[in-house]
Design goal:
Strand content: 15-25%
Oligomer: single chain
Shape: globular
CATH topology of the largest domain: Thrombin, subunit H
C-alpha cells in the first residue's frame, strides 16, 4: 500500500489560520476573527458551490449525508478557529471540515485536469487563476506528461492503478520505488538494480482525465531501467516509519513504443549542476504545483471528494502550494528531501512537483509520501542530479 494511503497526525489550528489568511481567495483571518469581510457563512457557501461544481463536472450526485457531515465539520471547525484562534481544539471531524474549506476557498485547491489544463472558472481556483493562466502553455505540457501507473490485475482493489509517473526522458518515466513494488510484487533492489518481475499488462496511462478518457495515450511498461538506493537501516525515520531519507524512493521505467503513437515530451528537470540556476530553484516559500492521480480512501489530508463523491477518483488533478523546507529536513542525512503543503491524497505517490513562480515547466521534485498534518515529502531533484545523470540530458547553458 502506498505511503500516501496511510492516515497520520492531524493539522493544528495555526496551520489553518495561516492557510486561510494566505489563501488567494480566502480574504484572510485576523486574530480570532475573519478579516476583509469574509465570514464563516461565506466560506461555507464557497464549499457548497464547489460541491455543486463537482456534480456538474462529473455528472455524479453528491451523497447527501456525507455533504451534511462535511458541512457540519467545516462549520464547527471555523467556529472554533473564530472563537479560540491558535488555541482552538480541533478533532478529526473539524480537521476534515477545514480541509474541505481550504480546498474550496482558493487556499489549497485540488483542481481537475481536463484537456491538459485546469478549468480557470472553477470556483475553488481563487488567485491561482491568474498564475496558472499566465503559464498555460507550460502547464499543459506538464499535464500531458503525467500518467497513471495502471495494473489490470488489481481486480480486488478499488482503483486499478497504484500511483503516478511522469516523463523523465525519451520513453522514460519516473515514479516511486514503492509504486514499482506494487506492480512487481516481491521485487527487491540492491546497488541501484531491481530484481523482480513486472505484472503482465501494466502500463502508464497519460489520458485519464475528467470529461474524456483518451486510450491512445496509454503505453505498456517495458522494463525497469534503475532504482534509487534503499538507505541504511540506521537512518529509518522514527517519526514517520517506514520512511528512510537516506534512500531514494525512485524508480525509472522504460515504456514500450506503440505504432502510431508518440510518447509525451519529456519534462524539464531541475539540475544541481545548471550553470544558470546553480541548484537554487527549490527554496522555501517558492510556489509550486503538483500533478498526479489521487484517489485512495486515505491520504495526506482528508478528502472531501472521497466522502461526498464515491466515484470521483483516478482522475488527473493539479494542486498548487508552496515549498516549506529544502535540504534541512529532520532525519535527512543527504539533503535530498524537501517538504511542501500542496493538498495530496493517496495515489499522488510519484507525482511531479513543478515550479510555479518562474517558467511553470521545470520539475523540482518527485513526491513520495506525506502525513495528514500537511507534511508532504518529495525528493529535491536538484540535489540528486548525480543519481539521475545517466538518464538526464546534459546541463544547458
Amino acid at each position: 500500500m502506498p505511503i500516501d494511503d496511510e492516515p497520520g497526525e492531524q493539522s493544528g489550528p495555526t496551520d489553518y489560520l495561516a492557510l486561510l489568511a494566505g489563501g488567494p481567495a480566502a480574504g484572510g483571518l485576523e486574530g480570532v476573527g475573519f478579516a476583509n469581510g469574509v465570514t464563516r457563512a461565506e466560506l461555507l457557501d464557497r464549499l457548497r458551490t464547489e460541491i455543486a461544481y463537482v456534480e456538474r463536472k462529473t455528472g455524479l450526485t453528491a451523497d447527501e449525508d456525507a455533504v451534511a457531515a462535511v458541512l457540519r465539520g467545516a462549520d464547527e471547525g471555523l467556529g472554533r478557529l473564530f472563537g479560540d484562534g491558535p488555541d482552538a481544539d480541533l478533532g478529526p471531524v473539524e480537521v476534515s471540515g477545514l480541509e474541505a474549506v481550504v480546498r474550496s476557498d482558493g487556499s489549497r485547491p485540488v483542481l481537475f485536469v481536463e484537456d491538459d489544463f485546469v478549468d480557470v472558472l472553477a470556483p475553488s481556483i481563487g488567485g491561482y487563476q491568474v498564475r496558472l493562466s499566465r503559464l498555460e502553455e507550460s502547464v499543459r505540457a506538464v499535464c500531458r506528461s503525467v500518467g497513471r501507473v495502471d495494473d489490470p490485475s488489481d481486480r480486488g482493489g478499488s482503483l486499478g492503478y497504484h500511483g503516478t509517473a511522469w516523463m523523465l526522458g525519451e520513453g522514460l518515466v519516473a515514479t516511486n520505488f514503492h509504486v514499482l513494488q506494487a506492480i512487481a510484487p516481491g521485487g527487491t533492489r540492491a546497488d541501484g538494480r531491481f530484481h523482480g518481475r513486472l505484472t503482465t499488462g501494466v502500463s502508464v496511462h497519460f489520458g485519464h482525465e475528467v470529461g474524456a478518457v483518451r486510450p491512445e495515450r496509454r503505453f505498456p511498461i517495458r522494463r525497469v531501467v534503475g532504482v534509487g538506493p534503499e538507505g541504511a537501516a540506521k537512518y529509518a525515520n522514527p517519526d514517520a516509519l517506514p520512511l528512510n531519507f537516506d534512500g531514494l524512493d525512485l524508480a525509472v521505467l522504460e515504456l514500450e513504443p506503440v505504432p502510431g503513437r508518440a510518447f509525451p515530451q519529456p519534462n524539464v528537470v531541475a539540475r544541481g549542476d545548471s550553470p544558470v540556476t546553480r541548484g537554487g530553484l527549490a527554496s522555501p516559500g517558492r510556489g509550486i504545483y503538483l500533478v498526479g492521480y489521487p484517489g485512495a480512501q486515505y491520504g495526506t489530508t482528508p478528502d472531501l471528494f472521497t466522502r461526498i463523491f464515491a466515484g470521483v477518483k483516478s482522475f488527473k488533478r493539479l494542486a498548487p502550494g508552496e515549498l516549506l523546507r529544502v535540504g534541512d529536513v529532520p532525519h535527512d542525512p543527504r539533503g535530498w528531501i524537501l517538504t511542501h503543503d500542496a493538498s495530496t491524497l493517496g495515489g499522488n505517490s510519484g507525482s511531479a512537483l513543478v515550479d510555479l513562480d518562474a517558467d511553470g515547466r521545470t520539475v523540482l521534485g518527485l513526491h513520495f509520501a506525506g502525513q495528514a498534518d500537511r507534511q508532504n515529502w518529495a525528493h529535491a531533484l536538484e540535489r540528486m542530479t548525480g543519481e539521475l545523470g545517466s538518464v538526464l540530458p546534459p546541463a544547458g547553458g
